[in-house]
């Protein structure tokens, strides 16, 4: 193999492998839940069972689920903070309208690095405004997200 070809192959691998790994790992834990609009038109209902995942015969509880809506191009992240406690936030950065990513117990903007707490508070700029959040509560076997 020529030296130039070898160097080019090594450089492409050094750049391509981390990018591919991050793309694949970021998609691995994201679950898009089905949500229905309640008869009042202002409430989304998500089955609590959307947080249950079965892998290799074991039942696990998801930390969060994403919900696509008809009123925004950005999903809502419904985050489980503990037994019976949920928060819901629109995944749109208030700084530059980029879609946020979930990074452990934070929402992170990949465009300029803003960070938000799960309850929507700004932790690190350049964003200065908190995220749009929705009241989330349990009703029987559903989690209610109040849009209004």
Secondary-structure blueprint of this entry?
Elements: H1 3-28, E1 35-37, E2 43-47, E3 52-55, E4 58-61, E5 64-67, E6 76-82, E7 85-90, E8 101-103, E9 106-108, E10 115-117, E11 122-124, E12 133-139, E13 142-146
Antiparallel strand pairs: 1-2, 2-13, 3-4, 5-6, 6-7, 7-12, 8-9, 9-10, 10-11, 12-13
List keywords for this structure.
single chain; 148 residues; alpha+beta; Rieske Iron-sulfur Protein; 2 domains; seven-stranded antiparallel sheet; four-stranded antiparallel sheet; 1 helix; 13 strands; 39% strand
Task: Summarize the structure in short.
With 148 residues, this protein is an alpha+beta fold. It has one helix at residues 3-28, and strands at 35-37, 43-47, 52-55, 58-61, 64-67, 76-82, 85-90, 101-103, 106-108, 115-117, 122-124, 133-139, 142-146. It folds into two domains: 1-28; 29-146, 3-layer Sandwich (Rieske Iron-sulfur Protein).
Description:
The chain has about 150 residues and is of the alpha+beta class. The protein folds into two domains: about 1-30; about 30-145, 3-layer Sandwich (Rieske Iron-sulfur Protein), CATH 2.102.10. The protein is about 20% helix and about 40% strand. The protein has one helix and 13 strands, in the order H-E-E-E-E-E-E-E-E-E-E-E-E-E. It has one helix at about 5-30, and strands spanning about 35, 45, 50-55, 60, 65, 75-80, 85-90, 100-105, 105-110, 115, 120-125, 135-140, 140-145. The strands form three sheets. A seven-stranded antiparallel beta sheet has the order 1-2-13-12-7-6-5, with no helix packed on it. A four-stranded antiparallel beta sheet has the order 8-9-10-11, with no helix packed on it. A two-stranded antiparallel ribbon has the order 3-4. A hairpin with a 6-residue loop joins strand 9 and strand 10. The longest helix is centred in the first third of the chain and has 26 residues, at about 5-30.
């Amino acid at each position: 193999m020529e030296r130039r070809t070898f160097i080019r192959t090594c450089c492409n691998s050094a750049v391509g492998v981390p990018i591919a790994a991050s793309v694949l790992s970021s998609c691995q834990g994201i679950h898009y839940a089905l949500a229905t609009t309640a008869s009042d038109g202002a409430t989304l209902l998500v089955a609590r069972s959307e947080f249950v995942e079965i892998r290799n015969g074991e039942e696990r509880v998801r930390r969060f689920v994403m919900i696509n809506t008809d009123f925004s191009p950005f999903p809502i992240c419904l985050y489980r903070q503990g037994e019976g406690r949920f928060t819901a936030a629109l995944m749109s950065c208030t700084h530059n309208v980029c879609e946020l990513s979930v990074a452990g117990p934070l929402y992170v903007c990949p465009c300029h690095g803003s960070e938000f707490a799960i309850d929507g508070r700004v932790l690190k700029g350049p964003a200065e405004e908190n995220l749009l959040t929705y009241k989330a509560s349990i009703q029987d076997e559903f989690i209610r997200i109040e849009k209004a």
